[in-house]
C-alpha cells in the first residue's frame, strides 16, 4: 500500500511543554482550502486527553501565579520578538490552513503582535486599590488569577483569535488549555512552541485538539475555572449554558450580521472601497464583515462604484478561498436562493475557478441588490464574500432593519453628516460602531465584543474589559497598631 507523505506531520496535542500522543485513536484529515489537498491529520481527543492537559496546567499554576507579573510579562516581550522573527512562516501557515491571501494572513499575525503588546502593558493597568478606611485600618484590593482556564477557537482566525485570550489570561497569572478549531490546527502548535522558546514554563499553555467531545469535556471539567469561546451563535449558546451551569465563568462570542448604512451624502469613492473591502476581506469569513448594506435614498451612483470596486477583487489573487467545499456550496446556495426570490445579482461570484487551483474552495466577490429583509440572505450569516444590499427611504427605516436582527456585533454608517453619524451611534443596536469605517474593530486598549446573539457573558474578550474576566478581586483589611480601637465594623 502506498504511504502518502503529508506536508505537515500528524498534529499531536501539546501538554506540559511537549508534543504528546493522544489517548484517542480517532483522527481527522486536515485539508488546505487553497487547493483541496490533504496536508495533515489531527487527533480527536477524548476526555482523558483533556484531563492530562488539565493536570499539567494545574501543576504549573501555583508557581506561575506566584511569579510577579513584571516577570511574567518579560516572557511576552521575548515572545513578541519571536512573532516578528517568524512572521513569514506564521503567515504561510495561516494561509495554508485557512486559505487567506498572504497579506491577510500577515495582518492576522500583526494583530497577534498588537494583542501581545497590550498584555505586556498589564502591569501598568492592574495595580490594586488602597485606602485607610478607619484610623489605622487599611483596606486593599488586588487582582488575582482564577486558576486553569480554557480558550476555544474558531477556524477563521487561526493565529489572531488564540491571541485574544492567551497573552492576557496568562500574563494575569492563569494557566490555560487551548482548543483550536479542528479545521485549522497548525498555527496553535506553533504558537505553543514559540511561547516555550520565549521561556514560558511547561504546563502554563497546553493545546488539546478535537471537536464537540472535547468542548463538552472542557465545559464539564471541574478543575477548569473559566471558559472563553469564539464561534457560531448556535454553539456559543450551548457552550455558555453548559459552562455556566457547571458554575464556571464564561464569555462566548457568536456569529454576526453587520449592517452598513449608506447615505446619499457619503463620499462615493471612500464608501465604495470600504464597503467592498468589508464584505470581501478574509473571503467574508469574519465576524466583522459588512455582509449587509442598507442604501438610504438615492445611492445608485455609490452602488455602481461598489460593483466597480468589487470587480477588482479577484479569487486567487486578492481574494482567498473559503474554508471548505461545504462552505462554498452553502454560500452559492444563498446567492441562488436570493436571485430566485427576486433580488438582482449585480456581480456573480458563483463557480469561481482559480487556474492551477481548480480543487480549491473559491467563491468570487458577489454583489446582490434589491434584497428584502424577509429573504434568508438578509437574515442569516452567509460567511462568504457576498454583499446583500437592501434599500430604504429613510435612515430610521434602515435602523429599524438593523435593530430587528438578533445579532449585535457591528454596524456602520457612511455619511458626511455629523448629525446622521451621531444618530446611528445612538440608535444602532450593536457593540461596535463604525463611522465611515467598514470593519470597526476596536484596537487595543479598547475591548472587542458585540451585543445580542453575538456575545453571551458579561465581559468583552480583549482589552481592558478582559482583565475583569480573567481575574478575581482579593480584598484585605489590615491593622498593625494595637492602640487602634475596635470600631463598629471590627
Ligand atoms: P463553530 O461554532 O463551528 O466552531 C467553533 C468551535 O466550536 C470550534 O473549536 C469547534 O471545534 C467547536 N464546535 C463545533 N461544533 C461543536 C459542537 N456541536 N459542540 C461543541 N463545540 C463545537 O464556528 P466556526 O465555523 O469555526 O467559526 C465561524 C463562526 O465563528 C462564525 O459564526 C463567526 O461569525 C464566528 N466568529 C465570531 C467572532 C466574534 O468575535 N463574535 C469571531 C470569530 C468568529
UniProtKB/TrEMBL annotation:
A UniProt-annotated Pfam family: Aldedh
Domain of life: Bacteria
Keyword Oxidoreductase recorded: yes
Claim: Oxidoreductase is one of the keywords in the record: yes
Keywords: Oxidoreductase
Recorded coiled-coil stretches: none
Residue stretches making up the Aldehyde dehydrogenase domain: 23-475
Gene3D superfamilies: Aldehyde Dehydrogenase, Chain A, domain 1 (3.40.605.10), Aldehyde Dehydrogenase, Chain A, domain 2 (3.40.309.10)
CDD domains, per database record: ALDH_F6_MMSDH
NCBIfam families: MMSDH
Protein name in the entry: Methylmalonate-semialdehyde dehydrogenase (Acylating)
Organism: Hymenobacter frigidus
The encoding gene: mmsA
Amino acid at each position: 500500500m502506498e504511504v502518502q507523505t503529508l506536508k505537515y506531520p500528524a498534529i499531536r496535542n501539546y501538554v506540559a511543554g511537549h508534543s504528546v500522543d493522544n489517548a484517542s485513536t480517532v483522527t481527522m484529515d486536515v485539508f488546505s482550502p487553497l487547493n483541496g489537498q490533504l496536508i495533515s491529520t489531527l487527533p480527536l481527543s477524548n476526555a482523558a486527553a483533556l484531563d492530562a492537559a488539565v493536570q499539567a496546567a494545574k501543576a504549573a499554576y501555583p508557581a506561575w501565579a506566584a511569579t510577579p507579573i513584571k516577570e511574567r510579562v518579560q516572557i511576552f516581550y521575548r515572545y513578541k520578538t519571536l512573532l516578528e522573527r517568524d512572521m513569514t512562516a506564521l503567515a504561510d501557515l495561516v494561509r495554508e490552513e485557512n486559505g487567506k491571501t498572504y497579506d491577510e494572513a500577515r495582518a492576522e499575525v500583526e494583530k497577534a503582535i498588537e494583542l501581545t503588546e497590550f498584555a505586556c502593558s498589564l502591569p501598568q493597568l492592574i495595580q490594586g486599590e488602597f485606602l485607610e478606611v478607619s484610623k489605622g485600618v487599611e483596606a486593599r484590593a488586588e487582582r488575582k488569577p482564577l486558576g486553569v482556564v480554557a480558550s476555544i477557537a474558531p477556524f477563521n482566525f487561526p493565529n489572531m483569535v488564540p491571541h485574544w485570550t492567551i497573552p492576557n489570561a496568562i500574563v494575569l497569572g492563569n494557566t490555560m488549555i487551548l482548543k483550536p478549531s479542528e479545521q485549522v490546527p497548525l498555527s496553535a502548535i506553533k504558537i505553543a512552541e514559540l511561547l516555550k522558546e520565549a521561556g514560558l514554563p511547561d504546563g502554563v499553555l497546553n493545546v488539546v485538539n478535537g471537536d464537540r467531545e472535547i468542548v463538552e469535556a472542557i465545559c464539564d471539567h471541574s478543575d477548569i475555572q473559566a471558559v472563553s469561546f469564539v464561534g457560531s451563535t448556535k454553539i456559543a449558546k450551548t457552550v455558555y449554558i453548559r459552562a455556566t451551569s457547571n458554575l464556571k465563568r464564561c464569555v462566548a462570542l457568536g456569529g454576526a450580521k453587520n449592517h452598513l448604512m449608506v447615505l446619499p451624502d457619503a463620499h462615493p469613492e471612500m464608501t465604495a472601497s470600504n464597503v467592498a473591502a468589508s464584505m470581501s476581506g478574509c473571503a467574508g469569513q469574519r465576524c466583522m464583515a459588512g455582509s449587509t448594506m442598507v442604501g438610504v435614498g438615492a445611492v445608485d451612483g455609490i452602488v455602481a462604484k461598489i460593483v466597480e470596486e468589487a470587480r477588482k477583487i479577484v479569487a486567487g489573487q486578492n481574494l482567498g478561498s473559503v474554508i471548505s467545499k461545504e462552505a462554498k456550496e452553502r454560500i452559492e446556495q444563498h446567492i441562488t436562493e436570493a436571485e430566485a426570490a427576486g433580488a438582482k445579482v449585480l456581480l456573480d461570484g458563483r463557480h469561481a475557478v482559480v487556474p492551477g487551483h481548480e480543487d480549491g474552495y473559491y467563491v468570487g466577490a458577489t454583489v446582490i441588490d434589491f434584497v428584502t429583509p424577509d429573504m434568508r440572505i438578509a437574515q442569516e450569516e452567509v460567511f462568504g464574500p457576498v454583499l446583500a444590499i437592501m434599500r430604504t427611504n429613510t435612515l430610521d427605516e434602515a435602523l429599524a432593519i438593523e435593530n430587528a436582527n438578533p445579532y449585535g456585533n457591528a454596524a456602520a454608517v457612511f455619511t458626511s453628516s455629523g448629525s446622521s453619524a451621531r444618530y446611528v451611534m445612538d440608535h444602532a443596536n450593536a457593540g461596535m460602531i463604525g463611522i465611515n469605517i467598514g470593519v470597526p474593530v476596536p484596537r487595543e486598549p479598547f475591548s472587542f465584543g458585540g451585543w445580542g446573539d453575538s456575545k453571551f457573558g458579561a465581559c468583552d474578550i480583549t482589552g481592558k474589559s478582559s482583565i475583569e474576566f480573567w481575574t478575581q478581586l482579593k480584598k484585605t483589611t489590615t491593622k498593625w497598631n494595637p492602640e487602634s480601637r475596635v470600631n463598629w465594623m471590627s
